[in-house]
C-alpha cells in the first residue's frame, strides 16, 4: 500500500533513486554503503546489500522552497533496500541529532512511512545507561516523532520488500555518531526471525527494558492523522516550528513518550 506524501515524488526501487515531478525539487540521492555503517551493526563483518539505503535531503514543491528555506525547515526522503545485514534487517547505523547552531539545541525528527513497514528504534541516551528504549512499528501513512537528543535508527521491518518514507528535520541538521559507535551500536539490535523481528540487548550498555508499540500519531504536537505531514505543513506553515525550535514545545518533550 502506497501512502501519498502530498507532492510529486516517486521511488524507483530498482535504480535506488527518486523521480521528481515537474513541480518538485530534489537532489540526486546520497547512497549509504554497507561499509559506512558496519561499526554499528551486531556483526560488523556481515554481508548484505552494498547500498542498504539512500537519502535525498531537501525535497518538496517548487512553490514552497523559499518559505522552507526561510523557516530553516527541511524535508528528506529515503529508500531502504530489500534484504538483511547478516541476521539484522536493513537499517541505518544510529545517531543522535547534533546541536543545531540555529536553535542552540538538538532537534526532533518527524517520520512518515510511505511504503513497506518500518520500526523506528529510539533510546533516551547513547551513554552507558540508555534510559527508556522504544521500538515503534509503523505502516504507510503512520507518523513517528523522535524527540530531541534521543539516539535512534530506522529499520526496514519487512526484509522481503523495500521501504520508503519522508521526514521533517531542521535545515542545519548534523549527526553525532560518537557514543553510538563507542558502544558498537544502539542498546538493542533487531534480528530477523520467522514471523517478524526480535530484539537482542547490546551488552555494551547497562541493562534496560525495551518497549514495543505501534505508531500512535502525535496529536499533542498538533499533527492530524491521515493527512500527509507535507500537506499539513502547506495548510499551516507554522505547524512544524517545534522541529526547528524545539524549545517552543519543551513542556511536551518533558513528558513525551514515542
UniProtKB/TrEMBL annotation:
Q: Which GO terms describe its cellular component?
A: cytoplasm
A Pfam family reported for this protein in Swiss-Prot or TrEMBL: GPI
InterPro entries, sorted:
G6P_isomerase_prok, RmlC-like_jellyroll, RmlC_Cupin_sf
EC numbers, comma separated: 5.3.1.9
Pathway the protein takes part in: Carbohydrate degradation; glycolysis; D-glyceraldehyde 3-phosphate and glycerone phosphate from D-glucose: step 2/4
Molecular function as annotated in GO: glucose-6-phosphate isomerase activity
Instruction: Tell me which domain of life the UniProt entry assigns to the organism this sequence originates from.
Output: Bacteria
Q: Where is the Glucose-6-phosphate isomerase prokaryote domain?
A: 61-206
**Keywords for the protein's UniProt record, in alphabetical order:** Gluconeogenesis, Glycolysis, Isomerase
Its EC top class is isomerase
Biological process according to GO: gluconeogenesis; glycolytic process
- Which family does the record claim for this protein? Belongs to the archaeal-type GPI family.
Q: What is this protein called?
A: glucose-6-phosphate isomerase
